[in-house]
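Minutes, project huddle
Topic: does the predicted pose make sense with adenosine-5'-monophosphate-propyl ester bound?
PN asked that the exact inputs be recorded in the minutes so nobody has to dig through chat later. Recorded below.
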Amino acid sequence: MSIESVLHENRVFEPSADFVKNANVSGMAAYNQLCAEAAADYEGFWAKLARELLVWNKPFTKTLNQENAPFYKWFEDGELNVSANCLDKHLNTIPNKVAIIFEGDDGATQEVTYKDLYHRVCQFANGLKKLNLNVGDRVIIYLPMGIEAVVAMQACARIGLIHSVVFGGFSAKSLNERIIDAGAKAVITSDGQFRGGKTLPLKSAVDEGIAMGGCEVIEKVVVLKKTGLEIAWNSNNIWWHDLIANVADTCEPVMVNAEHPLFLLYTSGSTGKPKGVQHSSAGYLLHAMNTMRWTFDIHENDVFWCTADVGWITGHSYVTYGPLAMGATQIIFEGIPTYPNAGRFWQMIEKHKVSIFYTAPTAIRSLIKASETTPEVAPKNYNLSSLRLLGSVGEPINPEAWMWYFEQVGGSRCPIADTFWQTETGGHVITPLPGATPLVPGSCTLPFPGIDIDVVDETGKDVPWGTGGLLVIKKPWPSMIRTIYNDPERYKTSYYPVDLGGKIYLAGDGAIRDAKTGNFTIMGRIDDVLNVSGHRLGTMEIESALVANHLVAEAAVVGKPHDVKGESVVAYVVLKGPRPEGDEAKKIVAELREWVGKEIGPIAKPDEIRFGDNLPKTRSGKIMRRLLRTLARGEEITSDISTLDNPAILEQLKEVVK
Ligand code: PRX
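Predicted holo structure (tokens), as shared on screen:
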């Protein structure tokens, strides 16, 4: 199989001469040279970058320690502080450069210079110090997108606290589970948030989450007054503004070991509860910076805008850490792309003269739809001439969406960096470098220099280019996940399975390399992880949520292709009572969707629920998910169903409750 037959698009877009001329990695020869350097002296390659890009308080002498593989250590005897690398370092050079241009939901803007941000972070860090928090303690951050979210994360980093940001779209129950798993001592939240012209509560979910029990370790809840929404007040609550009142606005950064955990970020896997992906300080920051430099080609006068929320890894690496450490000016946006209308992104690019724009395919696809129905909000109505580079992240970008992004947004002038990576990889691992790599719509192209990524078969053996297989990373890299918090065994079995020899990192995606160019195309997850609007969800998690409802006996969840969201969630449910019909079925569907929203978060609500007297199982009782996926797509089952115990059930499961 060649890539063309997967992609249905074989045009190649070479970088323009203009772009190549000024690029940080200029031309394919430069890219090849970097890859050759990494191949010739792997540790030397990373050590050189770490000395060049990071400011060390105590320089490292050892680059990589593999003694306890796969628990790798990078730069292990070095010491530094991540916040000092993002802020203090700029105080003598660019104190008055704008670090953040914040645009609120209502369109009001606010600018923060590097010096302002430094003081705000220092002051908040001093506030946190008053709360009996010590180096290594965990702090949950549950805040809307805004300057304060960045301040809170940076302040934790400044004094060695390990933050764990929980996306505001997760429920009280999800918050409760994360607080317990992380053993967090404090939560930082806000009274509410502004989104799409509405004022929505936020702190109430924290109250509810804590009240669910098991959160006795929480000593304090810091509350930002954001909306003025009325909130319940508990004895361990403290206002953000009271915490920093009369507190100094300078604060010595606490130097930590290179391997000191910078943060935990919970993400879904194929089994069990979400896992706390643990990242390091030095290795993580190094890759966030270097990808800003090589993938995003960051230059002094760029205005960088990554639209991701800080609740996701993209917002960690390309909002809170990478852009600041590189001294960039960036946009932070509180609102949503469709308010007050679906031209909001384009209007903001025009207004702030954004030069580098990084967003998700699902957003692009929804804006394509919007500009078809409402031509006034199409990108061509806006002056987007400031753009010079576009990026895509989170899910495969289909060639049609790629071409629209390229032509309508980028004016056929801006390269697109389709960046493949994961919460676990910390930063980009496959991506074009815009001044070097020829672009093929729908392909994330080639490995980031130094990342030894490839495709193998089920036994870990290389497959020839042109043959599909499992995406793996063969050598440890600095920004890799260090462990799953509280569950090192799960880290080993999830990412370093013995079937593959136990020494190579299994990404969990299927991939194929083009027979001629070696370009990668990602073929989607090989496990039971769904990607809904760029959000990662485990089918098992949704199933567990459903069976926790008193009406449900059994549930199976699969994904189904969706033209805007990438994938949508289809749930097959067997009730404890009889299979419902008509209005009764509709009522239960509404109840179960609401229930999943409460258990996990609105993003996990099934798009479709179908009821059966049973689920299709083999004689040994295993649910045949393959059949459920076929049914979800509305296709006829043509494959062999001779092992199926109860074929009659399939007819029932074709019916969607509308
Ligand atoms: O399936 C891949 C998909 O998103 C997964 C990682 O999700 P998460 O940890 O939430 O991180 C998302 C943001 C980095 C991957 O295993 N994915 C991510 N980027 C791409 C992608 N699939 C195809 N192309 C991409 N560019």
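Observations noted during the meeting:
- The mean pLDDT is 96.
- The radius of gyration is 24 Å.
No decisions taken; revisit at the next huddle.
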